[in-house]
Amino acid sequence: MINLKDSENNPLLSIEEIKAQIIEIMLAAVDNPSNAVEWALAEMIYQPDILYQACKELDEVVGKDRLVDESDLSKLNYVKACVKEAIRLYPTRPLNLPHMSTKDIIVGGYFIPKDSEVKLVDHELCMMSFSAGRRVCPGVVLGSTMTTILLARLIQGFRWIIAPNGLHKVNLAESEDLLMAKPLIAQAVPRLEPRVYHKLM
Protein backbone atom coordinates (compact mmCIF):
# COMPACT_ATOMS: atom_id res chain seq x y z
CA MET A 1 0.00 0.00 0.00
CA ILE A 2 2.92 2.30 0.69
CA ASN A 3 4.13 1.93 -2.90
CA LEU A 4 0.78 2.80 -4.52
CA LYS A 5 1.26 6.02 -6.51
CA ASP A 6 -0.92 8.13 -8.77
CA SER A 7 0.05 9.38 -12.25
CA GLU A 8 2.06 12.22 -10.68
CA ASN A 9 3.93 9.79 -8.39
CA ASN A 10 2.09 10.98 -5.26
CA PRO A 11 1.02 8.40 -2.64
CA LEU A 12 -2.54 7.15 -3.21
CA LEU A 13 -3.07 6.47 0.49
CA SER A 14 -1.96 8.45 3.53
CA ILE A 15 -0.16 6.76 6.42
CA GLU A 16 -3.40 7.09 8.45
CA GLU A 17 -5.39 5.35 5.68
CA ILE A 18 -2.81 2.55 5.48
CA LYS A 19 -2.90 2.09 9.27
CA ALA A 20 -6.71 1.93 9.19
CA GLN A 21 -6.64 -0.71 6.44
CA ILE A 22 -4.09 -2.84 8.31
CA ILE A 23 -6.05 -2.64 11.58
CA GLU A 24 -9.26 -3.59 9.73
CA ILE A 25 -7.56 -6.60 8.12
CA MET A 26 -6.05 -7.74 11.43
CA LEU A 27 -9.33 -7.45 13.32
CA ALA A 28 -11.32 -9.12 10.55
CA ALA A 29 -8.82 -11.98 10.28
CA VAL A 30 -9.17 -12.81 13.98
CA ASP A 31 -12.72 -11.84 14.94
CA ASN A 32 -14.81 -12.86 11.96
CA PRO A 33 -13.64 -16.50 11.57
CA SER A 34 -13.76 -17.20 15.30
CA ASN A 35 -17.23 -15.66 15.69
CA ALA A 36 -18.59 -17.53 12.65
CA VAL A 37 -17.14 -20.81 13.93
CA GLU A 38 -18.58 -20.28 17.41
CA TRP A 39 -22.05 -19.71 15.93
CA ALA A 40 -21.74 -22.66 13.53
CA LEU A 41 -20.56 -25.00 16.28
CA ALA A 42 -23.34 -23.83 18.61
CA GLU A 43 -25.96 -24.52 15.93
CA MET A 44 -24.42 -27.93 15.20
CA ILE A 45 -24.36 -28.93 18.87
CA TYR A 46 -27.94 -27.68 19.20
CA GLN A 47 -28.91 -29.75 16.14
CA PRO A 48 -26.81 -32.95 16.43
CA ASP A 49 -27.99 -34.36 13.10
CA ILE A 50 -26.19 -31.50 11.33
CA LEU A 51 -23.02 -32.17 13.33
CA TYR A 52 -23.30 -35.87 12.49
CA GLN A 53 -23.58 -35.15 8.74
CA ALA A 54 -20.54 -32.86 8.85
CA CYS A 55 -18.50 -35.52 10.72
CA LYS A 56 -19.62 -38.15 8.23
CA GLU A 57 -18.53 -36.00 5.28
CA LEU A 58 -15.14 -35.33 6.88
CA ASP A 59 -14.61 -39.03 7.62
CA GLU A 60 -15.50 -39.98 4.03
CA VAL A 61 -13.45 -37.26 2.32
CA VAL A 62 -10.46 -36.91 4.66
CA GLY A 63 -10.54 -39.99 6.86
CA LYS A 64 -9.17 -40.22 10.39
CA ASP A 65 -5.45 -40.67 9.65
CA ARG A 66 -4.71 -37.00 8.94
CA LEU A 67 -6.16 -33.59 9.60
CA VAL A 68 -8.25 -31.78 7.02
CA ASP A 69 -6.30 -29.23 4.98
CA GLU A 70 -7.01 -26.62 2.34
CA SER A 71 -6.75 -29.11 -0.53
CA ASP A 72 -9.80 -30.95 0.88
CA LEU A 73 -12.12 -27.94 0.90
CA SER A 74 -13.39 -28.36 -2.67
CA LYS A 75 -14.88 -31.74 -1.65
CA LEU A 76 -16.40 -30.61 1.67
CA ASN A 77 -19.68 -29.19 0.36
CA TYR A 78 -21.72 -29.87 3.50
CA VAL A 79 -19.15 -28.28 5.84
CA LYS A 80 -18.87 -25.23 3.54
CA ALA A 81 -22.66 -24.95 3.50
CA CYS A 82 -22.69 -25.01 7.33
CA VAL A 83 -20.21 -22.10 7.41
CA LYS A 84 -22.26 -20.10 4.89
CA GLU A 85 -25.47 -20.75 6.81
CA ALA A 86 -23.89 -19.63 10.10
CA ILE A 87 -22.68 -16.42 8.44
CA ARG A 88 -26.14 -15.88 6.92
CA LEU A 89 -27.93 -16.45 10.23
CA TYR A 90 -25.42 -14.54 12.36
CA PRO A 91 -23.57 -11.89 10.30
CA THR A 92 -20.52 -10.42 12.02
CA ARG A 93 -21.47 -6.91 10.91
CA PRO A 94 -24.87 -5.21 10.98
CA LEU A 95 -26.51 -5.29 7.57
CA ASN A 96 -28.44 -2.04 7.96
CA LEU A 97 -25.86 0.54 8.98
CA PRO A 98 -27.05 4.01 10.01
CA HIS A 99 -27.21 6.56 7.21
CA MET A 100 -26.69 9.44 9.63
CA SER A 101 -23.94 10.27 12.06
CA THR A 102 -25.01 9.15 15.52
CA LYS A 103 -22.87 11.73 17.33
CA ASP A 104 -20.67 14.78 16.69
CA ILE A 105 -17.42 13.51 15.21
CA ILE A 106 -14.37 14.59 13.26
CA VAL A 107 -13.45 12.36 10.32
CA GLY A 108 -10.38 13.09 8.20
CA GLY A 109 -10.22 16.61 9.62
CA TYR A 110 -13.90 17.37 8.83
CA PHE A 111 -16.43 18.09 11.58
CA ILE A 112 -19.66 16.14 11.09
CA PRO A 113 -22.48 17.13 13.47
CA LYS A 114 -24.84 14.58 15.01
CA ASP A 115 -27.77 13.53 12.78
CA SER A 116 -26.04 14.70 9.58
CA GLU A 117 -26.80 12.57 6.54
CA VAL A 118 -23.49 11.29 5.20
CA LYS A 119 -23.09 10.33 1.54
CA LEU A 120 -19.92 9.12 -0.09
CA VAL A 121 -19.71 10.04 -3.75
CA ASP A 122 -16.26 9.62 -5.25
CA HIS A 123 -16.11 8.33 -8.81
CA GLU A 124 -12.36 7.78 -8.57
CA LEU A 125 -12.45 5.87 -5.30
CA CYS A 126 -9.39 3.61 -5.24
CA MET A 127 -10.12 1.44 -2.19
CA MET A 128 -13.26 0.68 -0.20
CA SER A 129 -13.08 -2.02 2.47
CA PHE A 130 -15.86 -4.64 2.74
CA SER A 131 -17.82 -3.45 -0.25
CA ALA A 132 -19.32 -5.18 -3.27
CA GLY A 133 -18.71 -5.49 -6.97
CA ARG A 134 -15.25 -4.66 -8.21
CA ARG A 135 -14.31 -3.26 -4.82
CA VAL A 136 -15.35 -6.28 -2.77
CA CYS A 137 -13.36 -7.12 0.38
CA PRO A 138 -9.95 -8.43 -0.71
CA GLY A 139 -9.90 -10.82 2.26
CA VAL A 140 -13.17 -12.59 1.49
CA VAL A 141 -11.48 -15.72 0.08
CA LEU A 142 -8.88 -15.85 2.85
CA GLY A 143 -11.55 -15.31 5.51
CA SER A 144 -13.88 -18.00 4.23
CA THR A 145 -10.99 -20.44 3.83
CA MET A 146 -9.77 -19.78 7.38
CA THR A 147 -13.29 -20.15 8.77
CA THR A 148 -13.98 -23.40 6.92
CA ILE A 149 -10.62 -24.96 7.88
CA LEU A 150 -11.09 -23.97 11.54
CA LEU A 151 -14.62 -25.39 11.72
CA ALA A 152 -13.66 -28.54 9.80
CA ARG A 153 -10.70 -29.25 12.11
CA LEU A 154 -12.80 -28.72 15.22
CA ILE A 155 -15.49 -31.07 13.91
CA GLN A 156 -13.04 -33.66 12.59
CA GLY A 157 -10.82 -33.61 15.65
CA PHE A 158 -13.40 -33.64 18.43
CA ARG A 159 -16.75 -34.99 19.49
CA TRP A 160 -18.66 -32.06 20.97
CA ILE A 161 -20.98 -32.53 23.93
CA ILE A 162 -22.78 -30.37 26.44
CA ALA A 163 -22.09 -31.13 30.11
CA PRO A 164 -24.23 -34.14 31.08
CA ASN A 165 -25.31 -32.48 34.33
CA GLY A 166 -27.39 -30.02 32.31
CA LEU A 167 -25.75 -26.94 33.86
CA HIS A 168 -24.81 -25.67 30.41
CA LYS A 169 -27.19 -25.56 27.49
CA VAL A 170 -26.68 -24.15 24.04
CA ASN A 171 -27.99 -20.61 24.13
CA LEU A 172 -28.45 -19.17 20.64
CA ALA A 173 -29.40 -15.70 21.90
CA GLU A 174 -27.58 -12.84 20.21
CA SER A 175 -26.08 -9.84 22.00
CA GLU A 176 -26.30 -6.24 20.77
CA ASP A 177 -22.82 -6.52 19.25
CA LEU A 178 -23.92 -9.56 17.16
CA LEU A 179 -21.92 -12.04 19.25
CA MET A 180 -23.36 -14.87 21.31
CA ALA A 181 -25.09 -13.43 24.38
CA LYS A 182 -23.53 -16.20 26.47
CA PRO A 183 -20.35 -18.02 25.43
CA LEU A 184 -20.65 -21.53 24.04
CA ILE A 185 -19.58 -23.98 26.75
CA ALA A 186 -19.04 -27.49 25.43
CA GLN A 187 -16.72 -30.39 26.10
CA ALA A 188 -14.35 -31.45 23.32
CA VAL A 189 -13.58 -35.18 23.34
CA PRO A 190 -10.81 -36.30 20.95
CA ARG A 191 -12.10 -38.54 18.15
CA LEU A 192 -8.81 -39.18 16.31
CA GLU A 193 -5.69 -41.13 17.22
CA PRO A 194 -3.22 -39.10 19.35
CA ARG A 195 -0.53 -39.28 16.64
CA VAL A 196 -2.75 -37.22 14.29
CA TYR A 197 -2.85 -34.31 16.76
CA HIS A 198 0.92 -34.39 17.24
CA LYS A 199 1.39 -33.36 13.60
CA LEU A 200 0.16 -29.90 14.58
CA MET A 201 3.04 -29.36 16.97
UniProtKB/TrEMBL annotation:
Matching Pfam families: p450 (PF00067)
Domain of life: Eukaryota
Primary location class: membrane
Keyword annotations: Heme, Iron, Metal-binding, Monooxygenase, Oxidoreductase
Keyword Iron-sulfur attributed: no
GO molecular function: heme binding; iron ion binding; monooxygenase activity; oxidoreductase activity, acting on paired donors, with incorporation or reduction of molecular oxygen
Any GO CC annotation of this UniProt entry: membrane
Location(s), subcellular: Membrane
Topology within the bilayer: Single-pass membrane protein
Family that this chain belongs to: Belongs to the cytochrome P450 family.
PANTHER family referenced in this protein's UniProt entry, alphabetically: CYTOCHROME P450 703A2-RELATED-RELATED, TYROSINE N-MONOOXYGENASE
Name by which UniProt lists this protein: Phenylalanine N-monooxygenase
Native organism: Sesamum angustifolium
